[in-house]
Structure formats: structure tokens, C-alpha cells
Design a protein that fits this description.
α2 runs antiparallel to α6. The mean pLDDT is about 95. About 40% of the residues are buried. A 5-stranded mixed β-barrel has the order 9-10-13-11-12. It is an alpha+beta fold and about 400 residues long. The protein folds into 2 domains: about 5-70 and about 110-305, Bira Bifunctional Protein, Domain 2 (BirA Bifunctional Protein, domain 2), CATH 3.30.930.10; about 325-410, Anticodon-binding domain (Rossmann fold, 3-Layer(aba) Sandwich). The protein contains 11 helices and 21 strands. The protein has helices at about 20-30, 45-65, 75-80, 85-90, 110-120, 165-185, 270, 295-305, 335-350, 365-375, 405-410, and strands at about 30-35, 40, 65-70, 75, 95, 105, 130-140, 155-165, 195-200, 205-215, 220-225, 230-235, 250-265, 275-280, 285, 290-295, 325-330, 355, 375-380, 390-395, 400-405. Its EC number is 6.1.1.15. Keywords: Aminoacyl-tRNA synthetase, ATP-binding, Ligase, Nucleotide-binding, Protein biosynthesis. One of its GO terms (cellular component) is cytosol. It catalyses: tRNA(Pro) + L-proline + ATP = L-prolyl-tRNA(Pro) + AMP + diphosphate. One of its GO terms (molecular function) is proline-tRNA ligase activity.
Length: about 400
């Protein structure tokens, strides 16, 4: 894409009122725009990053047999009354009134929708197990929307719901999902700093698990066992003051950003909606359920919190909006032709390129914008490169010069 055609622009200053690193850099670099507290527009660059994050998650969910659906955002009050959460979750529910006094909620989660949906298709043990998922916007009336994309009132969520004939099958799938999540973190370059954390199981089970990315700016307090790469959330540290796996009591206190969670719901929602199946003996049994969430928009924010320097963002290759940022620092016709040649050659090879062809900004501004935007590899061509190309990785200090055709032939 030619940067002169990009309708958005970088900003010279950080947005007023933003204190989190992710919001400051993403707004300044032109990835997102703040509409109001906790609500952001994803601009072209930001949407490219978000889509890449979501597609990585989608790949891994498909790989373990989950089937993608898309459920409504507007949900009837009756379903929430059935589970008692119309009042129990009243503090975060966005409630709407429709015609003739009908009431609705904007979905913060979808157990109340997916359970009666599945009830239409499950009758026998032969219909189990299976799992469905969606990637969708969710809405929660946060009292203190803060930290940019880390805690919003509208946010993106991948939620999987699994359905099983017995607890053993639920536990087996739970472990498969845990391994799938590890692949997601690896592909996002977060695997070395993301830990599986024991957390409260609420009314579902003794424990659930969170996935916390270690970051000084994270709002969650966790205690880590470096030996087992497991941890405990602060909310249950007094119930479990040692590593649940090896018993290690020398736990390290850290801050983290929750990027995912997994729960064994068991029969909590199947009981509310009478979701049953008939076993081989002809007896009716409640279906066992699990739910598994990842926050794609929160991950975008977490990536910026983790991968940045004093100049801007350092995107991992897998989610960067472009792989190359080509910058022309000359006004001569010959150099402009060379820049266009490089751009077209890279496009013909299927590479993603942001070409800074702007003629209304200074050379210094172009280089500052490149550091701010954070594309993994910067390509500079100028009068000084003399028929060569200057190649610099965003996370490296020094650039290298290479012949244009030589470099293009191996990249």
C-alpha cells in the first residue's frame, strides 16, 4: 500500500488523557481512534493487525475440530433470567428496552445463547462431543474502562463452547484446548512470557485457568513457579500458597495481562436450560460443558505493552500490518523509479509492503513515522544509497546495504 493513499495519519503528540502505553502508541501511530472511554475504532493499520491475530486464533481452533458460528449480539432478557444472571451480572450488563416493553442485553458472553441453541441438535450420546466457537464483539458496562485496549466496554472475543457426555471427555478436551492455546501464544511470540495460571473456578469447579502475559503494566497480580511455568492468581494465593504441580513455595510475584481463560462449566448451564442427552441405556443425562476465551483486541494491546521502545512499536512478524516499510528519501526521478521498482517487485512476490511515497513530509518525519508504526523491516532508498538499498530490522540498531536486485532475489 502507498502511504500517500492511506487516509489516516500519524499524530505528533500523544492523545490527552491516555496513560497506557498501548493506547498512547496505537493512537499516535494511527492504528486506532478513541470514540469514548473503553470504545475504539480500528483504523486500516489496526484492523490489519487485529485480523491477523484473529486468524491465528481461528487456525488453531479449527485445527482441533471446533466449528465456527456467529451468534447474535442482542440477547433476550428471558435467557438471562433463566440463569439468574439478569440480576447477578446486572453491574456489567448493557440493558436495552425495545418496543412494547421488551428487554434485551448486549452480549458480554454467550452461554445463555449457545446452550438453548445446541439443545435443538443434541438428543443422544451419538450427538456428542463437539465444540463451537465465534469471534465477535462483546459489551460490558465496565465501571472504570481503562488501559486502552486492555479493559474496554466494547471488545473482541473468541469464545469456544464444548459439549460432552461425561466429565472425563470434558477434561480430555480441556487439556487439548490448553495445548492449542500454547500454540497460539507461540505464533504470537508471547510463549516465553505467557503462563498458565490457576484461578478461581467460581461456581463451576474448584479451579479455572487464566493465561497471563507477564508485563510490568499488567493490572493482575500473579505468583509464578518458574520450574513448572505455572502460576497462581492473587485471588486464590491464600488457598494455594505453593505450586499446584510441584509444591514449590518460592513463588515469584509478577504483574500480568490476562489474554485468555478456560473453564469447566460442567452442568451449570445445561441444568438451567435442561440440555440433556439419552445414553446407551436410554436414561437422560445433563450435558457437560466447557468454555474457552481469548481476547484478540486485548492481545493487540498486550503486544504493544510488551513490544515497544522509546521510538514506537515493534510488531512481531506474524501480526505486523506489513512486513516491509519502503521509504523513499529522494526527490530525483531515478531514485523514485528505483523505489517504485522495488515496490512492484515485492508486491509481485506476494509481500506486504507499506511504501512511504509521500512528498509533503520531511525525510526525518518519514523515518520517525517508520519507527513509530513499527513494521518489522525498513527499506530505505535515497541519493546516498547509490543504486543499493538500506535494510534495517526494526529491533536492530544498524542497517545493512545491499544491491537492489541481489536483495530482491533472496527475499
Amino acid at each position: 500500500m502507498k502511504q500517500s493513499e492511506l487516509f489516516t495519519k500519524t499524530k505528533k503528540e500523544y492523545a490527552k488523557g491516555e496513560t497506557s502505553t498501548n493506547a498512547k502508541l496505537l493512537i499516535k501511530a494511527g492504528y486506532i481512534d478513541k470514540l469514548m472511554a473503553g470504545v475504539y475504532t480500528f483504523l486500516p493499520l489496526g484492523l490489519k493487525v487485529l485480523n491477523k491475530v484473529e486468524n491465528i486464533i481461528r487456525d488453531e481452533m479449527n485445527a482441533i475440530g471446533c466449528q465456527e458460528i456467529l451468534m447474535p449480539v442482542i440477547q433476550p432478557k428471558e435467557n438471562w433470567v433463566t440463569t439468574n444472571r439478569w440480576t447477578d451480572m446486572s453491574d456489567i450488563l448493557f440493558k436495552l428496552e425495545g418496543v412494547r416493553g421488551s428487554e434485551f442485553a448486549l452480549g458480554p458472553t454467550h452461554e445463555e445463547i449457545v446452550t438453548p441453541l445446541v439443545k435443538q441438535f443434541v438428543f443422544s450420546y451419538k450427538d456428542l462431543p463437539f465444540a463451537v466457537y465465534q469471534i465477535q464483539s462483546k459489551f460490558r458496562n465496565e465501571a472504570r474502562a481503562k488501559s486502552g485496549l486492555l479493559r474496554g466496554r466494547e471488545f473482541r472475543m473468541k469464545d469456544v463452547y464444548s459439549f460432552h457426555a461425561d466429565e472425563k471427555d470434558l477434561e480430555d478436551f480441556y487439556e487439548r484446548m490448553s495445548k492449542s492455546y500454547e500454540k497460539v501464544w507461540q505464533r504470537l511470540s508471547l510463549d516465553n512470557i505467557t503462563y498458565k495460571i490457576f484461578a478461581s473456578g467460581g461456581s463451576f469447579s474448584k479451579y479455572s485457568h487464566e493465561y497471563q502475559t507477564i508485563c510490568d503494566s499488567g493490572e493482575d497480580e500473579i505468583y509464578l513457579c518458574e520450574k513448572c511455568r505455572l502460576g497462581i492468581n492473587n485471588e486464590i494465593i491464600f488457598d494455594q500458597d505453593s505450586c499446584p504441580k510441584c509444591g514449590n513455595k518460592k513463588l515469584i510475584k509478577k504483574n500480568g495481562i490476562e489474554v485468555g481463560n478456560i473453564f469447566q462449566l460442567k452442568t451449570k448451564y445445561s441444568k438451567s436450560f435442561n440440555l440433556v442427552y439419552q445414553d446407551k441405556k436410554g436414561d437422560n443425562n445433563l450435558v457437560q460443558m466447557g468454555c474457552y476465551g481469548i481476547g484478540p483486541s486485548r492481545i493487540v494491546g498486550a503486544l504493544v505493552e510488551v513490544f515497544h521502545d522509546n521510538k514506537g512499536i515493534l510488531w512481531p512478524d506474524a501480526v505486523a500490518p506489513f512486513q516491509y516499510h519502503l521509504i523513499n528519501l529522494s526527490k530525483s526521478n531515478s531514485v523514485e523509479k528505483q523505489a517504485e521498482y522495488i515496490y512492484q517487485r515485492l508486491l509481485s512476490k506476494g509481500e506486504e509492503v507499506l511504501f512511504d511515497d509521500r512528498d509533503n513530509v520531511s525525510f526525518g518525519e518519514k523515518l520517525k513515522d517508520a519507527d513509530l508504526i513499527g513494521v518489522p523491516c525498513r527499506l530505505v532508498i535515497s541519493d546516498k544509497t547509490d543504486g543499493r538499498i538500506e535494510v534495517k530490522k526494526r529491533n536492530e540498531k544498524y542497517a545493512k546495504l545491499a544491491g537492489i536486485d541481489d536483495w530482491l532475489s533472496i527475499n
